[in-house]
Amino acid sequence: MDGERQALLEFKHGLIDEADRLASWVGEESDCCNWVGIVCDNYTGHVSQIHLAALEGHCDTLDYGTEKEYEEGSRQRLKGNLNSSLLHLKQLRHLDLSCNDFGGINVPNFIGSLGNLRYLNLSTSQFGGTIPPQLGNLTNLQVLCLGSFLENSYYESTILNMQWWSSLRRLHHLEMSRVDLSKETAWHQVINTLPSLATLGMSECQLLYINPRVARLNVTSLSFLDLSNNNFNSSVPRWIFSATSLVSLDLSGCNLHGPIPSSVATFHNFTSLQLLHVSENDFMNSSIVLEELSSISGNLISLDMSYCGVSSLVLNSLHNLTSVIRLDLSGNQLTKGITKLLLNICNLKQIDLSRNDFRNMSLTNLLENLFKCKKPALESLVLSTSGLSGHLPSQLGQLEHLEHLELYSNHIAGTIPDSIGRLSRLQTLDLSDNLIFDPIPYSIGQLSSLEVLRIYSNLVNGSLPDSVVKLSHLKELVISNNSLIGSLPESIGRLSLLKRMDLSYNKLSGSLPNSLGQLSKLEEVRFSSNFLSGAMTETHFVKLVSLKDLFGGGNKLTLRPRLVNWIPSFQLWRLNLNSWGLGPQFPFWLQSQKDLVLLDISNTGIYSPMPPDSFWRLLPSLNFLVMSHNHIRGTLSSIPATLSLLDLTKHLRCHVLHYLHYFLNGTFQPTFDLSNNSFEGSLHHVLCSYGEKDIKVLNLGNNHLSGVIPECWEKWPTLKFLNLEKNNLSGGIPRTLGSLSMLQSLNMGGNKLSGRLPASLVNLTKLNIIQLSGNELNGSIPTWLGRELSFLRLVNLKSNSFDGNIPHEICHLTHIQILELSDNNLSGPIPSCLNNYTVLSGKETVVNALYRTYSFDTSTEVIASDSLVRKGREDKYSTILPQVLLLDFSNNDLSGSIPSELTALSALQSLNLSRNQLTGRIPEKIGGMKALESFDLSVNRLSGELPMSLSNLNFLSNFNVSCNSLTGRIPSSTQLQSLTESSFFGNNLCGDPLTNRCTSVEVTDTKDHKEDDRSDGADWALIISIVLGFVVGFWVIVAPLLLSRSWRIAYFRIMSELKYLIYDAMHKYCFSMFAK
């Protein structure tokens, strides 16, 4: 016994026990059988069992609610090394070290020499490396657990060869989940050598092969089989159906295909099966398979058939699931509700029908059979993202056992019924992303068990009811993106368990209650973009010891602590107070926030010098810093090495070299944004020095930079976003820009750049956005722009001197959303192939992410923007830029007719072809461009009548065809008749809104014919007079022109000049009217 005690003390010596769990393991005289975790044999007195599992062995259900809970759980885990002194415990039969953290060390070889072990559990203890085959010596083992229950473990164990398993013939429980078995292909043959195996867990083992041709294995004793989340990509193996004793079968995420041969029995022999999880396998989408499943459904308790592609028609083959209490049919193709033939819905406790297609059903109809139950047992109802419509029925209050109700991302409208208050057991209520309006009912306060309340992204109005403070178990309150008004309840501090509160993007007003500072468990609070005002003091934060994220920007609050040396009780990770009143002095209490990752104090009225270097050294984790729109004097001379975004826009003036020097010469390469300042100087030294950079975003737009753009872009290989717009840069576009193979967005607009587009830009194959407007670029638009840069979404070349035709290759830009070529010298016809544009024709959806070149999980993003002319005025678009669909070829010298193919662009919102030389008629099918909001054809040479289909353009708010040669009646529609006369000026049009009324030519002609019919005869005197007058006049004018060549030349010269004078005068007038 002394030797065993000493062996245990040596074993303890190799461990790190932060929680002092082994405090009883002391002394040379104490009985080790009384030590924590040690069990001795009642007869021999020798140590037979070691139980040192952390967290009471429940590491498979870890759910740390707070950082403190995580830290405490981490302390409870033993760390260090395993000492081979355990070899002295000759009678050791049970060793449990699960749920600890051994930091990736290998499972020691010596454990294979503990020959009496019956039970070995090392699961979820962060072992790594190769599991030693010496464990095959433990021939008495009955239970072996080496897997992990952690989804994102830092460490991974591997077994290169499973043959040593064959020695463990007494095994009845084998758990290897998340152990890498990818090197083993004949694993099923090894399983065949374990005749006593009852439980086999091999989930997420990276198994790639499952032999579908093996008909049978020796697995008749197997009760629990888990092969989930191994991507076999194979047909269903026959041997699985030979495991006739199975009680639980989990094949989720195995990517098993059908059909199953008719000669193979499937579920018919599984008479004891209680749990069947087969999600993400399309072999279940079979009427034959579901009919077989129905034959053994009497014992089935839990069925998961999610994401199997099952339709309502196929599901009709499944019936008689009378014992099922948990049913998951989410992610299928169901269009109808659950029938009575399928199961006894009154006994059902959990049902998930989310992500199906119930677009033609209301919530009431879908739950019709459930509402007929006298005593429904339902505890969990999940119907999210299914296209459901209708309203929230009052019958929901009948589901008195309901604990979880999730209906988010549907089209449910109306009010929240008062009957919701009857669900006293409800823990989760998620109604987010619907069309719910009206105030939240006062009865919400009766949900005494509620822990999670989410109603964000709806149309909820009214104030937050005072009864919400009665929700004493509430941990999460999210009602952002609604229309809440009024102030927060004064006693909001009574929600003592609240961890997350998000009320941002509402219309809340007034001041924040002092009781907010009593929420000691609050970790995240967001109330950005409301109308809150008033002063915040230390009282509002007094007990917020758990607070990590505070987002309150976009309000008119102030925070000026009374104590000069105030040190908050919290340690924040992210802080956004933009638009608050923090100044005029810099808030030096921030230096106490040593864990800050994001800091946004933009537009906060700070009028003070830049804090010293010592201040920034106290923020070692700072990653995002936004201090724009203040009046901060001086420079940030010591930039934190961790910084990846710096925004100091507005009110800073110095040489750009200063900041770039610190960034480019540092060890960490950040996102760099110094736009909208007054930086001046050349870029050459900065951009071409310091070697290769790892910067992804460089934004120096809207400054006073000058000189040429240097030729050294090969040193910026990772750049994705480059903005140099609105400076005084000159010269040509550098050819080395073509080396930026990762570039997605290029903006050099508003400078004095000249010359042609360099051919090297053809290498920018990932480019989504190119903005070069407002320069002096010339030459033709290169054909490679459309042929090679086919991923472009936004092309802006306006206000340059490009000439020649618009190349036919421009039609290869199939994903284009904005094509701006106005105010150049382009000539020739408009290409007839513009119907190739898939986004503009509505065949492809807009991808918003392509306009956010580098975004963060924060309130700060780098978003592309552009100034565009829509609806007759120029505006700058940023956030909604991805939603703008525009073609602008105006103010060029384009000729020919408008191609009819253009009318296929049914999603186009703005089309401007004004101030060109276009001729012919407006295409008859123009009304097919139903999304048009702005349409400008003014100052061209168009003729003919306005197409009647124009009346189909229901969204048209800006329309201009002035200064053409159009005739006839203006089509009738609310949009066209609401316009002003200037939209039609300079034509021969009639009808509303013009004062020129139309006359019915057809009616007049008919009347004249009738009068002719009634006439007794022709008026010959009148006819003779007209003929004589014509003959005399003709010869008086024409005879001299025929006889004299000089007269003839002079006459036609005068007439020609007169024609052009009239035409010129008309167009000058039209231009002046257009400008007005």
UniProtKB/TrEMBL annotation:
It is found in: Cell membrane. It is a single-pass type I membrane protein. Residues 2-41 form the Leucine-rich repeat-containing N-terminal plant-type domain. Keywords: Cell membrane, Glycoprotein, Leucine-rich repeat, Membrane, Repeat, Signal, Transmembrane, Transmembrane helix. The chain crosses the membrane at residues 1020-1043. Residues 82-251, 389-572 form the Disease resistance R13L4/SHOC-2-like LRR domain. This is Leucine-rich repeat protein.
